[in-house]
Protein 1
Amino acid sequence: MLRGGTSTLPVIDIDGKRIGDSTKIIEELERCWPDPPLYPADPAERQRALELEDFFDEHCAHEIRRVMFDPMLREPDLMAEATGSDRRRGAGVTRFLAPVISPVMDRAVRNTYDINPETAARGREAVEAAMDRIERERGPSGYLVGDSFSVADLTAAAILSVLVRPPEFPYHQVDPARDPEDLKRWRDTLTERPAFKYVLEMYARHRGTSAEVAAA
């Protein structure tokens, strides 16, 4: 349980109000800073954008977690780097205790998120199906709904960013060249797909360079 009463990630603090769950975060951001809008004004487009947001948040997000964690959990140093635990206070003690902690963490994460080679394989299929959907839904504007960036693009690009790892991603990320071999091979089959390039484009157009990444 995180301070503020939520165990949901991501979490944002706006004027002392701690909000968990990406959908609720977007709603609050839209309420506080409505320009530029993330929700299309046209009712039909708005409904379609919300349906896509729900699809990527509720389906693709769970599957990509399994895909990424399954191979990373087999390499504790990479898992620590990917989750940032190697940079937190007390990381030296954690590394010292890694032979004891890693098997416990492996079991806990796998049990919590139902991660095993079979669910990871199904997850890869689901992620590829999500990429298929991006390629079907994307319009001439380059966006998923209408002629401008919307909640649909924000969610799709954010969910897939852990796989694509665009340079504008706001936090430290593992170099894809250091990925476990099975993850690297699968990722390499996707890099030329329009959906993969779409994520790179959305970050390049709308994220800007992260101050945290630039300072690293």
Protein 2
Amino acid sequence: MVVGIWTTIRPSAAGPVTGAELAEFAVSTHTQHVRGRLTLDLQSDSEPRLREWLSAASPFPVVLPARDEGPSERRPYRLEGARLVRLRGKTAAFIAYKMPTGPVSLLVTPDAVAIASGGVEVNFKKVSFHYRRVDGYKVVTWSVHGLTYALVSQEGNETQTSCMVCHSAMKDRDLSHTPTPLSTQSSFGEPIWQ
């Protein structure tokens, strides 16, 4: 009987992680790193070295925006490094950054492992972004080209500076004064559910 109940309750565990569970895992991993409980396998501020390490260490291709390493390019962040983590027994890449607004992290996994969903959704032609608050952190998730990303920061709703870890490479507009679609009325401790 216990096996029957377990089998009935557990079918969703075989499918990809979605929405709130992905955001909670990303925040938990981010918090462990910030508190010194999750060390980085690679400690480097070199993005070419990060790409090389990910190419050798990750069982799936981690796609990150290509950046020029020119000395004149000013970035609103500094890369700290990366490590591989386990999400439901599967590999995910955790990449840590430092920004003036505080630590920022990016979690990357194949979309067979996790799919972005729920929260406050913002749709564009090729991708939908899902915003939510988890334990005082802003989490933005999206799935594109077979990968799912989760960006974690502690910045407020009035800025999206953390998004520059991806957008600065694309010469996009500066998002540091662009508000998020999250309600300014929401408490940082309250999750946003859709």
Protein 3
Amino acid sequence: MTQFTRILKTTRRALFGKAFLLAIGLTAATAPAAYADALSDILEQKRIVVGVVNDFPPFGFLDAQQNPQGYDIDVAKAIADDLGAELELVAVSAANRIPYLTSKRVDALVASLGITPERAQQVLFTDPYAATQSTVLAPQATSIEAIEDLVGKRVAVARGSSNDIFFSEVAPQGATVMRFDGEGAASQAMLANQVDALVMTNTMVPAVVQSRPDLNLETKVLLRQQENAIAVRRDETALAERINAILEEMKSSGALGELYHKWTGADLPEFQGNNPAN
């Protein structure tokens, strides 16, 4: 072997070694960061950030001292306690709830989020922990046993609300739908005897009934039930499973029912299991 050949082979080996090391370095530099599991992070940092609404009593609202209160807040506290984590509450709105979650500004949403197929494409829902019901309210003396009995009657509803949208789809022909600007205005029409019946969310019924006990208002028809669930990011299955375990224990012990009754005055609904993510 000539001296030139030996030099050439040595040079090739050196170049190959450098190229190999460079390739390893590039692979390490471009490899994706290790997956960060939210549940592990929460348990390690002993801190969970939860998005809640503050404009939807009795589920979430601000008290006289501007402190968040309500059913959602108490459920969030129970979850944090079970995880041994400090709870940080972040106010969210109906419009920005899901963006706050997907952008990782919060770890979870306990924010009166109704389960829908469209939302299930964006978030991972837990099992239901609450539900709101669309009901028909009317004086006891008014004969209404089914939705068909609203024919010929004036029915108040808050314009543009979910109750308005749903009732417009199922209202029998011959019922007069009277739309008002907001739940308050629709309720006042009922209290002033301007309408025969009122379509509203069940959690608001007690306040309306108590404001005019002489009318003997009562729930006549349950139109539908909208179940709410806690939401986490779609890839956070471990966190969702842990929250489900906490909710199941709270349901079994009666703790969840106690919280629900405390804030709504009603029994915890029987959930229909209509989670499209399951």
Protein 4
Amino acid sequence: MTSRDLLNLSCLAFVFVVASSCQDQQPDAVNGTYLDLPAVPYEYNNLNENNAVTTLGRVLFYDRQLSLNNTTACASCHKQSAGFADNVKFSRGFEGRLTSRNSMPVQNLQANIFAFDSFREPGDLMNSGAHLFWDGRESSLDNLILQPVSNHIEMGIRDLASLTKKLSEASYYAPLFSDAYGDQEVTSERITRAIRAFALSINTTNTRFDLYNQTKFTIIDPGSGLNLLIRPSNQPAVMNPLELEGMLLFQSKYDCNSCHQVQSTFGYQMAGTFANVGLDKEYADTGLEKITGNPADAGKFKIPSLRNVEFTGPYMHDGRFATLAEVIDHYSEGLNNNPNLDSRLKGENGTAKSMNISQHEKDALVAFLKTLSDRSVITDPKFSDPFKVK
């Protein structure tokens, strides 16, 4: 009998033996809960964690016991159906209070962490060169994981020792920790390591835009000497004419690609890339300036990946735009003349551009952005909530 079989038997035993206590641990369960952990392998990430560690991370990611009053999990603010972002402007914490910023999606963290620096030993993710959160206040993925758990609004766990004791008393964790680490000991380091492994496994590489890039090749036009991207005639047309037009507008005419590097497999930007995109003439939330203390950084926020952007709305650090159409309207005719407005959004006279994007071009841009969707991530059972109500 394999360890996976033993795990399934343990979970089934847990349903019948401690269903009532499970109901206390998961308050919204009606008749108790059980763990549904199908034998779906995870792709290894750069930390080379085994599937048992990643599976444990999945359970922890969805477990509301990681909050002070058992009401909020990591997944409460990072929903699979929303591309592991939240589908509201501000997320609701363990006491019902709202966060001050829109929840960024948990995806492609591996690229954000490792693309800009040499790979370190497993567990050494400090000062990786990446900047995490909207204001870039962290460069450590481990701290990114722990901050919401201890945040006074989000999950409220101030004493990690109490959390480890709490999880040790949940019967379903004994086989999970044993499978992952060889024994049942619950520590904050092991909790962090497991959630990290699960988060790093969420990658959006199965998009039509990626498929398009995989089915074309480059030739040199003898007339102009320019490189041309050609799709072989025997390959399917994975992007329609409107989407291709939107791609050209995105990458050339409106130069959106100078901020959002969509041609990257993971859709990451250069490390430390922030921009003031003219949302306001004066910002109530000054973003990066709160971290650096530099007035020139007021109104600058981390440039997000556009992978799965179709699902991750509302948009911007404060969730002010409900739709992609509203975002494009902002860049078309809504830029504010903020002193720190990004130079790429200024005209020749130094003031905010008026791009005046036509409705047809707006439709094309939205169509292209939807080719960056990886629908498998929002439906794959290996990323889904393992707590099932019986």
